[in-house]
Design goal:
The chain is mostly helical and 457 residues long. It has one domain: Amino acid/polyamine transporter I (Up-down Bundle), CATH 1.20.1740. The protein has 18 helices and no strands. Helix 3 crosses helix 16, helix 13 runs antiparallel to helix 14 and helix 15 packs across helix 16. The protein is globular and about 65 Å long. Bound molecules: tryptophan. Tryptophan binds next to helix 1, helix 2, helix 5, helix 10 and helix 14.
Length: 457
């Protein structure tokens, strides 16, 4: 198998740079820009950041390389790729590995079902910011605005449906015409807006307080549950365990070193999260607002801050537009694994698969829309439909998928077989990657799973 010549039947990125944009676009999403700054603050600032970086390095990075290597080696959907390699390596149950691929892709499907709803809120907030809905409003008024918005199921559904249709049209158009075209536009805009926001925060916000909040290490705040939170977020933020990096790796031309590219993606993902924190917190502190309010942070605190500052309409609109774009490039990546799996399994076109999958995601998304309006009472295990889907996909399926990938590449295949897929010149890097993937990564993920199942996180 020569990865240099192989091309996936589903398409190929036109360059390593486009792959980098796509993978970074997948990694950077609502998780980075809203969740990372918030949990960093709540869980001890600088100390949390150090643990998070450690998790990215020891769990995220090795797994990112492993997933991309699986894709580049087999050039098919996650299910077919795992099955093909299992067969080539003489494993006894290749079909079971195909099932693992299906399950991973299903996690992405479930994640998209709530991602579109939250992204729909973001789109609504972009337009509300543009209309000046937050200008000179009190904290109470803006909180009421958020609460009344999420409680209007038809409006929320209209926005999430719009976002979902855009996502499925893009995915349906295919790798070259759909994904690339949108990435070329949205990723540079995203970075540009983020930098503009950080500059604005430096001038208008309380930058010293923001810096202190994010980077002052308070190791006394570091407990095991905190370490587990950091690890779990590293997982979600890089988009691992759902087959996304397998299928994106399948489209990667076989000329570049995977470890280097994966390192760059992880660095970009982390850098964007830090930039988001640096853009957000100086503004929060300059207006005497509370940083650790939870899911409402972006939708309540930020509009309050922007509503009070000069030029807030423009900056606020830019912020939510940026968040919508980041969510869009992530949303695409959550469904691409299942998209290719369905195309392979049923032999249909991408367009047909996009229609059916879009309809299915839409139906499941009703659960999340309802969780904030129709059925806001807990359904099961004291959780709403949204919380159930999120828990099942993010806390159970992603870590399980990641653990299985680590075991598959680290223990169930011949290590040397991955040399060709990695194209890594340095023997030391290759060996370091393989050792960490075999020992550290699976143990770390197992810890997250156990913690999630015993309710410690
Ligand atoms: N990484 C994205 C974020 O931080 C979310 C995401 C995109 C994702 N693709 C994924 C999460 C695949 C899990 C699996 O918002």
């Amino acid at each position: 198998m020569d990865v240099r010549k192989d091309v996936s039947p589903h398409g190929q990125w036109s360059s390593r740079w486009i792959y980098f944009l796509a993978a970074t676009g997948s990694a950077v999403g609502l998780g980075n820009i809203w969740k990372f700054p918030y949990i960093t603050g709540v869980y001890g600032g600088g100390a949390f950041v150090i643990v998070y970086l450690g998790c990215i390095l020891l769990i995220g990075l090795p797994l990112l390389i492993a997933e991309a290597a699986i894709g580049r080696r087999a050039r098919h959907s996650p299910a077919a790729s795992l099955m093909t390699i299992a067969r080539a390596e003489g494993r006894r149950y290749p079909r079971a590995w195909g099932a693992v691929g299906w399950l991973a892709a299903l996690a992405g499907f479930l994640i998209l079902s709530f991602y579109t709803v939250i992204a729909g809120w973001v789109v609504y907030y972009t337009l509300a910011a543009l209309e000046g809905a937050f200008t000179q409003r009190s904290a109470v008024e803006i909180t009421a605005l958020f609460e009344s918005h999420v409680a209007r199921p038809w409006v929320v559904l209209a926005y999430s449906t719009g976002f979902l249709v855009a996502t499925m049209v893009c995915v349906g158009l295919g790798v070259r015409r759909g994904l690339e075209a949108s990435l070329r536009f949205s990723m540079p805009v995203l970075i540009l807006l983020l930098v503009v926001l950080v500059i604005y925060a430096t001038i208008e916000g309380d930058f010293a307080a923001g810096l202190q909040f994010l980077f002052r290490p308070d190791f006394s705040a570091l407990t095991w549950p905190v370490v587990l939170v950091a690890m779990g977020h590293a997982f979600f933020s890089l988009g691992l365990g759902a087959g996304t990096m397998i299928i994106y790796g399948a489209y990667l031309p076989g000329t570049s070193s995977l470890p280097r590219t994966a390192l760059e993606i992880s660095l970009a993902d982390t850098a964007v999260a830090m930039l988001a924190g640096l853009a957000l917190f100086p503004i929060v502190f300059a207006h005497g607002l509370e940083p650790g309010v939870g899911p409402q942070l972006v939708f309540v605190t930020v509009p309050i801050a922007f509503g009070q500052m000069p030029g807030g309409v423009l900056i606020g609109t830019a912020f939510f537009l940026m968040l919508a774009l980041a969510a869009f490039t992530s949303a695409i990546s959550t469904i691409e694994p299942l998209m290719t799996t369905v195309v392979e399994r049923f032999g249909c076109s991408r367009r047909q698969a996009a229609c059916w999958l879009g309809a299915a995601v839409w139906l499941v998304s009703l659960g999340t829309v309802g969780s904030f309006s129709w059925w806001s009472e807990p359904l099961l295990f004291n959780r709403t439909a949204f919380e159930l889907i999120d828990f099942l996909a993010s806390n159970l399926m992603l870590p399980a998928g990641g653990l299985l990938v680590a075991l598959f590449v680290g223990w169930l295949t011949v290590g040397d077989g991955w040399r060709g897929a990695l194209l890594e010149r340095s023997e030391l890097s290759f060996r370091a990657w393989y050792w960490v993937l075999r020992y550290i990564t699976p143990l770390g993920i197992a810890a997250v799973l156990i913690a999630a199942l015993t309710g410690r996180t």
